Amino acid sequence: MSPMNPINHDGPIGPGIGEGLPGDGTRRTRRAPTAPPAYVLTEDTPVYVISVAAELSGLHPQTLRQYDRLGLVCPDRTAGRGRRYSARDIQQLREVQRLSQDEGINLAGIKRIIELENQVTALQSRIAELVDSLDGAAAALQQREAAVHASYRRDLVPYQPPTPHSSALVVWRPKR
Fold first, then answer.
1. What is the rounded CA–CA span in Å between residue 58 and residue 98?
2. Separation CA 85–CA 45 (nearest Å)
3. 154 phi, psi to nearest 5 deg
4. What is the DSSP string of 105-168?
5. What is the pTM of this model?
6. How many CB atoms sit inside 10 A of residue 34's CB?
7. How far separated are the first and last CA of the chain, in Å rounded?
8. CB under 8 Å to 3, separation ≥6 — which residues?
9. 16-52: pLDDT as tens digits
C-alpha cells in the first residue's frame, strides 16, 4: 500500500476527518450542520462582562457599578450575580457619558432623561398597537357594511305618476 492510500491509517500525515474508512475506499467529508442555531444574538442579548463593557464604553468598571446602583444602566445578571451587558447597554453607557461630560447634566438629570425617553418609547409602542387595532376594526366595519349593502333587495318598482285629481291611497305589497 502507498502512504497516500485512504485505507492506510499509518500514512505520513495520518487519516483526515472522515477519511480512510476500511472497506469502501472512498473519501468522505463532514457535512455542515443543518439545524439552526439554538441561540440568536440581538442587541439586547447580554454578552459582555463588566471589564469588556467598560473598555467598549470608555468608562472605568467602578463607574459602571455606580451607574448600575443609581439605575442609569441596569445590566442583566448571571446566576452568580455577575453583570452581563448587552450592545444596547453599551450604547446607553456612551449616551450617559456624553450627557454628563459634553452637556454638563448631573446624574439625577440623566436618570430623569432616560426615564422620560423610556416612557416616550412605551407610549409610541402603545400608539402603534392602538393604530393597528383601529385599522383592524375599520376593516371589519367595512366588511360588515359591504355585507349589509349586498343583502339589499334590488327589485324594480314601476313608477306611476300621480293623477292630478285622485286622492286614492295606494298600498304596495311585495310579491312573495
1. 11
2. 8
3. -115, 35
4. --HHHHHHHHHHHHHHHHHHHHHHHHHHHHHHHHHHHHHHHHHHHHTS--------PPPTT---
5. 0.56
6. 5
7. 101
8. 11, 12
9. 444 444 444 445 455 556 666 677 888 888 889 999 9
